[in-house]
Design brief:
The chain has 193 residues and is mostly helical. Helix content is 69%, strand content 0%. The radius of gyration is 16 Å and the shape is globular.
């Protein structure tokens, strides 16, 4: 019965819209009216405030980690569902009519709580792809797609189903990015357009 508590707790923590709250507090307005309209760090970066974007990134990672860690303290059998809840909460927050971010940073947080080797693979793929391509969306999608295989290779087979589910959420939410990648119009970090 752990799922009765783990999933909602993960969802509630994941649904805290740090990107929106920090942008409003910094006088940047409603971040949903900027760029992609998402509440994540990449879109906050489009305001031109790197410090604010970094803070959103850290808080989104932190809430993913906190959700899984708290669930592990109370309902240890429900950690995978706590992880799923955190990512779903970030991507589909009830407070914002179910329109949130794309889950990349929050996924890093849940991976960190599920096991640092999994998080290391996630971060290495994310940062490696970003260094090579300078395309944030491609980096995030690649990292999310890599971690189910990483978990299996590391002997954490019990985590593979939830990590596949999270990867699918991240990939589906990047469907517009897929179209722009195919068209060659996906923006790169540090460049206009």
């Amino acid at each position: 019965m752990d799922w009765l508590f783990a999933l909602p707790l993960g969802y509630l923590l994941g649904s805290v819209p740090f990107g929106l709250l920090l942008a409003l507090a910094a006088g940047k307005g409603d971040i949903r009216q900027v760029g992609s309209g998402n509440i994540g760090a990449t879109n906050v970066l489009r305001t031109g405030n790197k410090g604010l974007a970094a803070a959103v990134l850290l808080l989104d990672v932190g809430k993913g980690f906190a959700a899984v860690w708290l669930v592990s303290q109370w309902w240890s059998e429900g950690v995978a569902l706590g992880a799923l809840g955190a990512v779903v909460g970030h991507c589909f927050p009830v407070w914002l009519r179910f329109r949130g971010g794309k889950g990349v940073a929050t996924t890093l947080g849940v991976c960190l709580a599920l096991g640092w080797p999994i998080a290391l693979v996630y971060a290495a793929v994310w940062l490696g792809m970003l260094a090579i391509t300078r395309i944030s969306s491609l980096s995030g999608m690649s990292a999310a797609a890599a971690v189910p295989a990483a978990a299996a290779a590391l002997g954490r087979v019990e985590l593979v189903p939830v990590l596949v589910g999270i990867a699918l959420i991240v990939l589906v939410l990047h469907r517009d990015n897929f179209a722009r990648l195919r068209a060659g119009t996906e923006p790169r970090i540090g460049r206009q357009g």
